[in-house]
Amino acid sequence: MLDRRKHLRIPVRLFLSFSGGKVRGEGTVLDISMGGCIIESQAPVHVDDIFYLQIALENDQTPLEVAAMVRSVSSRGIAFKFLRSAQENKRLLAFVHAKTESSGAGSSS
């Protein structure tokens, strides 16, 4: 079975708020990678909606701001795919890299 994911997912519990169009919401990031994240939220979103996410990274004062598109909505949560600018975000890269190192998840083949 092929795994379509290009990026390692890191389980987290981070607060976030997001807005796009007339929709504003907040929730909890359940996992994050350089490609996107899955959140838990009651906000009414639809596939292909674009939002600006503000994610409160641990021990960081200012939230990480990234643009993302809704990839899917399911009982598991809302899956966001980060837009290209987010995938080049240095703070996101540093956060994901630090989490990968600390969990030892980067050593699997």
Structure description:
The chain has 109 residues and is an alpha+beta fold. It has a single domain (10-103), classed as predicted glycosyltransferase like domains (Thrombin, subunit H), CATH 2.40.10. It is built from two helices and six strands. A six-stranded antiparallel β-barrel has the order 1-2-3-6-5-4. This is PilZ domain-containing protein. Residues 3-93 form the PilZ domain. One of its GO terms (molecular function) is cyclic-di-GMP binding.
- Helix fraction, binned, reads 10-25%
The biggest beta sheet, please? Answer: 6 strands, antiparallel, barrel
Bulk shape? globular
CATH superfamily: predicted glycosyltransferase like domains
CATH topology: Thrombin, subunit H
Radius of gyration: 13 Å
C-alpha termini separation? 16 Å
CATH architectural designation: Beta Barrel
Compute the number of strand runs. Answer: 6
Structural class comes to alpha+beta
Annotation field: number of helices? 2
Low-confidence parts, pLDDT < 50 over ≥5 residues? none
Kindly report the average pLDDT value.
87
- CATH top level is Mainly Beta
Strand order of the largest sheet: 1-2-3-6-5-4
Q: Quickly count the domains.
A: 1
* SSE succession: EEEEEEHH
Taken as a percent bin, the fraction of beta residues is 35-45%
Protein name: PilZ domain-containing protein
Organism: Nitrospira defluvii
Pfam families: PilZ
InterPro entries: PilZ_domain (IPR009875)
